[in-house]
Amino acid sequence: MSPERYLRTFDILKLLTERNIPLRLTEIKQALNLPVSSLHNMLQTMVSAEVVTVDDDLRYAVGPRTVSLALRTVQSLDLRTVARRPLQDLARELEDDVYLALRVGQRIIYVDRVLGSQRISLDIRLGEPLMMHCTAIGKLFAALDGRLEAHVLAGKLPKMTAFTITDAKQLKKEFARIREAGFSRSEQEAMAGVVGYALPIRDGTGSTVAAVHVSVLSSRATKTHERKILTQARACVEQIDKQLGHERSGVRKRAAA
Q1: Are residues 18 and 111 in the same domain?
Q2: Model confidence over 122-147: pLDDT tens digits?
Q3: Sheet arrangement for strand 59-62
Q4: N or C: which terminal CB in the chain sees fewer CB atoms within 10 Å?
Q5: How many domains does the chain have?
Q6: What DSSP line would sit under 168-220, residue for residue?
Q7: Domain match, 103 and 228 both
Q8: How far apart are CA 69 and CA 155, in angstroms?
Q9: pTM of the model
Q10: Are 15 and 48 in contact (CB under 8 A)?
Q11: How far apart are CA 176 and CA 172, in angstroms?
Q12: How far is the first Cα of the chain from the last one, in angstroms, to the nearest whole number?
């Protein structure tokens, strides 16, 4: 798709949301001054992708995928606001880099971060899709969702470091361990010299809506520091959970073997 055609799809969505009523092709054409043939092709593509819908009277409206994305965007903005102070406290307490991650479809992205005093030379851009089989955050989301787990296990498992799990059977066992432990750890699996820890954030329904990730230099990832990470990260997650309406109960899992 050309850049101009790509931008036109946003013009169409903007028009449909502003008018807030279903529109015919001719009405969209007049409003945006677009050729009928190319506009019709764009609308058909958008309908196929559920970005817009079309009714029996050939009127177009915003589709379910667009609505879902809009709701996720609003949710992520609200969640960032809710999580910001607990994340700052966690980074200050641990002195390690702390991230907030969200799932968007079958992708996991970081939407916020707080840098610790023990800086790691990583340039992880917010919004950039993360590896699912070797990052602590990717493994966590996959372990907690059966469909996402199946997707990861059926896909390619590229070897990023000497420690990356590239065998699907072994990775499946790792997912089971994560579900049992309640947290995920990446032992230099995505990048040599870096150990990651991830814990889920849940909303009032108990659904996993986000996760907290802590990146640690491997030289600092001692058993003592790991226990501190998991204790403080759980406290951080519980603060966020509570504000989202989720009250945790039951006995906590052991921090480390």
Answers
A1: no
A2: 667 777 788 899 999 999 999 999 98
A3: 23-24, 59-62, 52-54
A4: C
A5: 2
A6: HHHHHHHHHHHHHHTSEEEESSSSTTEEEEEEEEE-TTS-EEEEEEEEEEGGG
A7: yes
A8: 25
A9: 0.67
A10: no
A11: 6
A12: 51
